[in-house]
Amino acid sequence: MNKEQAPTERSLIEQFLDDNVLFLGPDTGIMRDHSVSIPTEQESAAVVAWADRSEDINLIRNRLQTACNESFDMVEQMGAAPGAKWGDLIAGIFSCQGDLALSSAGGVLIFSVLAQHPQKFMLKYWKDDPTVGIREGDIFMHNDARYGNIHNTDQSLSIPVFHEGELVCIVGSIVHEGENGACEPGGMPGGAESPYDEGLKMPPLKVGENFEFRKDLLTFLQNSVREPKLQLEGMKSKFHACLRIKKRVEEVIADYGVDAFLATVRGTLSDTEMEVRRRLQTWPDGKVLSNVFADSTLRENVLIKIRCEVIKKDDELIIDLRGSSPEFLNRANNTVLASMKGMLAQLFLMFVWPDLPRNQAVFAPITVLTDPGSALNCSPEAPNAQSMMTFFPAFTAVQNAIPKLLFSAGFRSTDIVACWYNMITTFVYGGSNQHKELVGNVCADLNGMGGAARATRDGEHSIAPIFASMADIGEQELIEEEVPMMKLVPHKVMVDNCGFGKQRGGHGYQQIVTHKDTQAWGYMVNTIGAKFPSTYGIFGGYAPGCYPLCKVKDVNVFEVMKDQRELMRFTIDEIMNEQPFPDATYSSHHAGLQFELADAGELYMITQGGGGGYGDILERDPADIVKDWADRIVSKHTIENIYHVVMDYATGAVDQDATDKARAAERKSRLARAKPYKEFAAEWTKATPPEGLPFYGSWDDPTVLHLGTPDNTCPADAIVPVMMPDPKDVEIAKLKAELAALKQA
Amino acid sequence: MSTDSAATPDLSGVTIEDGKVAITEYLAIDLDKETWHCRRCDQNLGNARGPYKEALMVYEREPSEIHDPAIDPEKYEFTYAPDPAWCRIIEYYCPQCATQMEVEYLPPGHPLTLNDLQLDIDALKARHAAAISGSEQGGQP
Lengths: 745, 141
Ligand SMILES: [Zn+2]
What we know:
The complex is a heterodimer of chains A (745) and B (141).
Chain A: H1 7-19, H2 28-32, H3 41-49, H4 54-78, H5 82-85, E1 89-95, E2 100-103, H6 111-114, H7 116-126, E3 139-142, E4 154-163, E5 166-176, E6 205-209, E7 212-213, H8 215-223, H9 228-256, H10 258-281, E8 286-296, E9 301-313, E10 316-320, H11 337-352, E11 366-369, H12 388-401, H13 403-406, E12 427-432, E13 438-442, H14 476-482, E14 485-493, E15 509-515, E16 521-526, E17 549-553, H15 557-560, H16 572-578, E18 585-589, E19 592-597, E20 603-607, H17 622-630, H18 636-641, H19 656-673, E21 675-676, H20 677-684, E22 695-698, E23 704-707, E24 713-715, H21 727-744
Parallel strand pairs in A: 9-22, 10-11
Antiparallel strand pairs in A: 1-2, 1-5, 3-4, 3-6, 4-5, 6-7, 8-9, 9-10, 12-13, 12-16, 14-15, 15-20, 16-19, 17-18, 17-20, 22-23, 23-24
Helix pairs in contact in A: 3-10, 4-9, 4-10, 8-9, 9-10, 11-12
Chain B: E1 16-17, E2 20-22, E3 27-30, E4 35-38, E5 44-47, E6 57-61, E7 88-93, E8 100-106, E9 117-119, H1 121-128
Antiparallel strand pairs in B: 1-2, 2-3, 3-4, 4-5, 6-7, 7-8
Zinc ion is lined by residues 38, 40-41, 43, 94, 96-97, 99 of chain B.
């Protein structure tokens, strides 16, 4: 543009451009900002007017909180989606500027920080647009993560609330609905190679007026997914939950006046932010570095580095994730920055300050730095359906770092926690069910993640997902009424499946699945960590191990076991090691399984992960070992070679003297086999990743990113996106080379 | 927005032992001497303004020693043990009492996380200026 342009000419051009926007993509300003909006004049005046009536404000806040919880329960009870039934949702109240001020206490707290973006988009672009507008009775929905969401399988619904013609708030609900018409069933396509493989893509969209859905738009949405009945049902339950919160808001306004309501909403946001800053003030100032390595794109094993520096200064926290892996332009494991921020925010909501109100102000004092174009801040053209595969590891990187600052904090509202298991280990399914309906969704038992060890006690077995403090794993019998899957071993806690330590992580379970009575049925699994553990211990505690996907194919267990029940084994290791079904094919894989049709009676087997350990294994109380032995969750090998405890296995009596001796001997041998830091580092450290290891991200210098080889690099501030070859092409090339070699010989 | 930094922050959760501030499960800082110490044996672990890890003993562990493969590695490519070509366990011990203070999982040859914890010692001193002169102070674990 010519610098000499006259001001009027420039504004004419700007006006022309503003009036002729060809496409309203995600607004980068809205998407990058997670701070709380500056109060409107009316909000500020309301806060001042109600400043000395904190008891009333507290009462109103509790009424609104109860309204959010009530609506949460409504969706959980009415919703047909497995996600709704297990609590993978929230319901909440947004300020008139779109900030989430109050939300249901349970459910998926990631939403607490990222449900605001579509509301802000609507307010900025639709409110004054003569073809859209925001009016009493309007119903809006959205699901595209690029406009603010975890992933496209979640659908939000919101309605504006007016008082005397003025917008006073927006109330909304967001639910993991599941099926969304993507290239694979169930809503989270690990096989997506572009955003256009991810199915339904709603930007904020007005789907109803006068409190009714528009039939044509409803039909369009139903036509876009594999479960049209579920789509309708999900919309109705969210809508009625929103109507309930709206009613409660109107009751509050009727009782106290609109200013009291505005003062409560605004005050909740500013009080929360102030309280977080006060708490951060009690942390020591300093810097913690933590590296995490994700080992898969879900299609192939690669090492994806998440580099994380957490810097605490005064009342602010900076999470610097620069130096992490570049984005994968044709893989689904990238995350939109806002989605990751939501995940990081709920680390604080769930594990650090669970006593704070669930709203976005909790994250306001926290700054997140990333390299644009990295896997943690991907471009709009990169698919993000499995963003969890990088934002869960990013969560773990921060969870791993926080205890080093929190341990000596002056104020804490929780125990010190190691790293929680961080993968959604379960089956996504798709096909025709026993009622001849097409279905596609995910099993609720992804929620059975092993809890991490804490400073004062062991982690709990298969207790809760990292993204929801209260969630259910579902009832197997109920699931079997709807889908033709049978879990031959539904949830069997696996021996030694945890991070060992002074306090051990909670264990995860094994599950063995098959199906029958269906014309077509298939499975997907979305889990990384088959080569490199996905989560870690702290303060000398170990990580849990790795988790393969195991299959037994070319067999129908219902037929072969008809007269031979004794063939069945109840652990994956027994089935794989003993191979009890003759002529079957046994194989193990990484647990990124794209949708795969299976025959009736074939076995698919996965293991839910355990939590990270806390502290030195040699400090574990032998009495705790005895208890674990009685519970059959620890092996003799681990007791003797890892914990160095000597006990009588029949009676459970510990030989304390022998244990002390064994542990003293182990301490001696530790010092004998170890080397001083500098000597060790000099031998260990290499200048580049090893040849043959597909490594992505920075090695030593955070400003230089490796792109899969020791020599191929790019600057972190000018990222070259990664394109991966089709795994089938890689396999074909390998087979062709083998064939050529055989022909030569 | 910033809270009043002049106000004394809440220090009720801080543990002071033998005049040293407990920093982690195994580390404490002597604010007078500005030194890191092992909380189990009081071993001096060097300048608190520098990395404590330089004072530790380090060992590289084959991951399957801790993480049992569970399914036969001869038969199957993927087991419950990490792939040693991708992942190694680095263990850090106190040079005196051999307490395992830290464990890291790293790709072979990846630089060790030397500066995993760098505290602002001046700020820490200011924070504890009042509290440190007192005797034993029990805090949260
Ligand atoms: Zn020591």
